[in-house]
Design goal:
The complex is a heterodimer of chains A (107) and B (125). Chain A is mainly β. Helices cover 0% and strands 50% of the residues of chain A. Chain A has strands spanning 4-7, 10-13, 19-25, 33-38, 45-49, 53-54, 62-67, 70-75, 84-90, 97-98, 102-106. Chain A starts with a strand and ends with a strand. In chain B, strands 2, 4, 5, 6, 9, 10 and 11 form a seven-stranded mixed sheet that branches. The chains are: A mainly beta (107), B mainly beta (125).
Chain lengths: 107, 125
């Protein structure tokens, strides 16, 4: 199984900050990497697919990059509605696996 | 509007069974593979199972293999998850999700683009 790790596990930031979250796979997954946002009590929401493609309707302040085994999610200017937990997920092989999540909270 | 609605969760005793349902609307259900993902209280997301669009191929996490069965009833636009031999470790919110194939120009990349609101399963005596 492909293991996914994320760092940091949590971070505190202010509105307007640039935020970067990293995700690493235990083996190459090429660009088969998705990012999700989850708010408390809500279902996850797809932000980025194929490592760097923005899902329809997602604000352009979100961006993804990387390939192989190392990926990043960047929020260029954090907005109040962006405080949430972010998960990466590999779709290269079954079982699909998620990272442990990165919680972004208010500084 | 594309929508998924889970039902069937509840409190069940250890060793018991439960069947979850996921009613789909707003898209051509038969065109899409579907997934179940769960989230234990205070924990992260765990993929549980997938079923192909045709229904003839299924996949399971090792943690549920042999106990859970995914199926679909296309005439009712409904996805199911039959859960048997439940244990405390199965306590979670269970989400169904639609697997969207995104074409990049040279390959399909799959993402879970539509999720239900989740149904809670609690295994306890």
């Amino acid at each position: 199984d492909i293991q996914m790790t994320q760092s940091p596990s949590s971070l505190s930031a202010s509105v307007g900050d640039r935020v970067t979250i990293t995700c690493r796979a235990s083996q190459t997954i090429y660009s088969y990497l998705n990012w999700y946002q989850q708010k408390p009590g809500k279902a996850p929401k797809l932000l980025i697919y194929a490592a760097s493609s923005l899902q329809s309707g997602v604000p352009s302040r979100f961006s993804g990059s990387g390939s192989g085994a190392f990926f990043t999610l960047t929020i260029s200017s954090l907005q109040p509605e962006d405080f949430a937990t972010y998960y990466c997920q590999q779709s290269y092989s079954t079982p699909l696996t998620f990272g442990p999540g990165t919680k972004v909270d208010v500084k | 509007e594309v929508h998924l609605l889970e039902s069937g969760g509840g409190l069940v005793q250890p060793g018991g069974s439960l069947r979850l349902s996921c009613a789909a609307s707003g898209f051509i259900f038969t065109n899409y593979a579907m997934s179940w993902v769960r989230q234990a209280p205070g924990k992260g997301l765990e993929w549980v199972s997938d079923i192909s669009a045709s229904g003839d191929t299924t996949y399971y996490a090792d943690s549920v293999k042999g106990r859970f069965t995914i199926s679909r009833e296309d005439s009712k636009n409904t996805l199911y998850l039959q859960m048997n031999s439940l244990g405390a470790e199965d306590t979670a919110v269970y989400y169904c999700a639609k697997r969207e194939p995104f074409w990049s120009g040279h390959a399909f990349y799959y993402g879970l683009d539509v999720w239900g609101q989740g149904t809670t399963v609690t295994v306890s005596s």
